[in-house]
Specification:
Layout lengths: L1 E4 L11 E3 L2 E3 L6 H12 L13 H7 L2 H16 L24 H8 L11 H18 L6 E5 L20 H11 L5 E5 L6 H7 L5 E8 L24 E6 L5 H18 L3 E6 L16 H14 L5 E5 L5 H16 L2
Parallel strand pairs: 1-4, 4-9, 5-6, 5-8, 6-7, 8-9
Antiparallel strand pairs: 2-3
Helix pairs in contact: 1-10, 2-6, 3-4, 5-6, 8-9, 9-10
Length: 344
């Protein structure tokens, strides 16, 4: 399994995020990437390879033009307006307000943001492009000689919707990989999101489409971010009806219950017979993750990697890195999933 990763990820490192009424050091930090690389290297995985330059063609098919223009210009507009801190929105278009993009950068941030924890810095856009390039390059690897690959994306992507950012995400890397595979000739792609938090952005992008089956295992949105999407009755709309499946689970969920949901999702995937599978790999289901409430242990990640590998053995599979904020264990748990998958 080849790993695609970029050291440009470190260009995005906000100084703080709003959590529990305080500004704290961001949970999504550069050392997450470093722990994963170290764990994979120490376990005999091949050295990470740099991605090719990002081709925006597929990106423009999953995100709106106005949104992509905003991401590219946000920091320069923020700086030009004389702000010295990091770019964080202070106002949002709430219910019954006009959904119109304003001219002022402070309001633009709120127009395109879904949450306050995700700051934009001088290096964010370059890091975002490099992260997306990792997913795109890894997707292009899948074929007869490479039946699996790992895109070590940072920043992550699954909360980024058609025209919104948040949850540490700006471009939806898993959705980009799916679009890349469709553009290359695939007729059906499945995305399995095993991050603790619902992949609201991926659902948003494909909710009306029938060539991507999206399945997400996550914390009940009544209690867990992103809170306003991820319920079991969200099954797709129009052409996409039946192509969206959510598995929300309560606080304290352990591996036995979580694994049952995984088995159900994998049965749906095998019945769908996709040309490729993308796994949005968040390891924040870990029992000591600081911003999650599932109770998976390190060995459970090996087991479910093995389960995925066993049940999807004939399907080319791409793992795309998402969350995981118990930093000292993120490398162990990521390696365990990939090792389990390869040893299935």
């Amino acid at each position: 399994m080849r790993t695609i990763a970029s050291t440009d990820h470190a260009l995005h490192f906000p100084k703080g995020e709003l959590s529990g009424g305080e500004f704290v050091r961001p949970f999504e930090c550069p050392e997450r990437w470093e722990y994963i690389v170290r764990a994979l290297t120490d376990s005999g995985f091949s050295a990470p390879e740099a991605p090719a330059a990002l081709d925006m063609t597929s990106v423009a098919k999953i995100h709106g033009d106005d949104y992509l223009r905003f991401l590219a210009q946000a920091w320069s507009l923020w700086e030009a307006d004389g702000f010295s801190g990091e770019a964080i929105p202070t106002v949002f278009p709430a219910r019954r307000m006009r959904q119109r993009e304003p001219d002022h950068i402070d309001a633009k941030l709120g127009y395109f943001a879904m949450a306050l924890e995700t700051a934009i810095t001088p290096g964010t856009w370059q890091a975002v492009q490099s992260s997306a390039a990792c997913a795109q390059t890894a997707a292009r690897l899948l074929g007869p000689s490479d039946s699996s690959a790992f895109a070590l994306c940072r920043p992550p992507g699954h909360h980024a919707g058609i025209d919104l950012y948040g949850g540490y995400c700006f471009i939806n890397n898993a959705a980009l990989a799916a679009q890349e595979l469709l553009d290359a000739g695939a007729s059906r792609v499945a995305i399995l999101d095993v991050d603790f938090h619902h992949g609201n952005g991926t659902q948003d992008i494909f909710y009306l489409r029938d060539e991507v089956l999206f399945l997400s295992l996550h914390g009940d949105p009544q209690r867990a971010f992103p809170n306003f999407l991820g319920y079991a009755d969200e099954t797709g709309h129009g052409a996409g009806e039946g192509f969206n499946a959510n598995y929300p689970m309560p606080e304290g969920t352990g591996y036995a219950v979580w694994a049952d949901a995984l088995s159900h999702a994998l049965r749906r995937i095998t019945h769908y017979t996709p040309d490729a599978l993308i796994v949005s790999l968040g390891v924040d289901t870990f029992e000591r993750d600081p911003i999650s409430f599932f109770k998976l242990r390190c060995d459970d990640f090996t087991d479910y990697g093995r389960t995925i590998g066993r049940q999807t053995a004939s399907i080319p599979t791409l793992f795309v890195m998402e969350g995981g904020y118990a930093v000292e264990e993120i490398g162990i748990n990521t390696r365990n999933v990939l090792s389990g998958f390869l040893g299935a």
